[in-house]
Amino acid sequence: MTVAVRVIPCLDVDAGRVVKGVNFENLTDAGDPVERARLYSEQGADEITFLDVSASVQGRATMYEVVSATAENVFVPLTVGGGVRSVDDVARLLERGADKVSVNTAALADPDLIARVTDRFGNQVLVLSVDARRCQQGVCTQSGYEVTTHGGRRSTGIDALEWTIRACELGVGEILLNSMDADGVREGFDVDMLRTIREHVSVPVIASGGAGRCEDFVQAAAAGADAVLAASVFHFGLLHIHEVKQALKNAHFPVRL
Fold first, then answer.
1. Tens of pLDDT along 157-198?
2. How much of the chain is helix, strand and coil, in % rounded to 5?
3. What is the C-alpha to C-alpha distance for residues 126 and 84, in angstroms, rounded to an integer?
4. Among all residues, which ones are annotated catalytic?
5. CA 220, CA 212: separation in Å to the nearest integer?
6. What's the CA gap between 248 and 255, in Å, rounded?
7. How far apart are CA 151 and CA 85, in angstroms?
8. What is the pLDDT of residues 100-122, one digit of tens each?
9. 89, 116 in Cβ contact below 8 A?
């Protein structure tokens, strides 16, 4: 049986509110996260992703409350990330109702964190979030894409392809591939980068960054995305989840309508 392409709205949460900007800057308020998650669930979202963009002690406490309230009101899988640094952080989020947890910077600093999490909880709970961009002048990697941190503002010099392959070997269950070049600009996913990663890893890959039209989601699926993720086009009513799914279906990709 062919697996359906998942459509996933992403909610960046700061101090208990959904925010959205361009390339992670100039953030504007986009509503209450629990209400947004409930709306997207009703519209047919296959999953919901929350990202804690403050990840301070105060932000973390608020995020736990948001996760708990969402889990009580929304009955689609919930992935939570942002500032996750330890196995205990993963455990706390799962206890509050998250189905999956994403890691990013902490895994770069300590790749064995991936193995420790998956050994305890299984690889189905762990998503590796990779913030990647095309190589900048003077900084180049073999694949032509490098991993960044701090919303794409800091170069790591780490090859995005090498990192995703290594993470899969350590046991990560899914890759959330964020294009820092495309984030928030609504000109389409970076399908070249997506194809590069998709060809070399066996775990599901989620395309993120750049959606502006229904056709963009179709192109990402054609490039091998197992799921497509977007934020601002859903938050500001530019696209409806059902529209995206219908476009995928019309292009002969399996979806859950």
1. 899 999 999 999 999 999 999 998 777 678 899 999 999 999
2. 40, 25, 35
3. 11
4. 12, 131
5. 12
6. 7
7. 17
8. 999 999 999 999 999 999 999 99
9. no
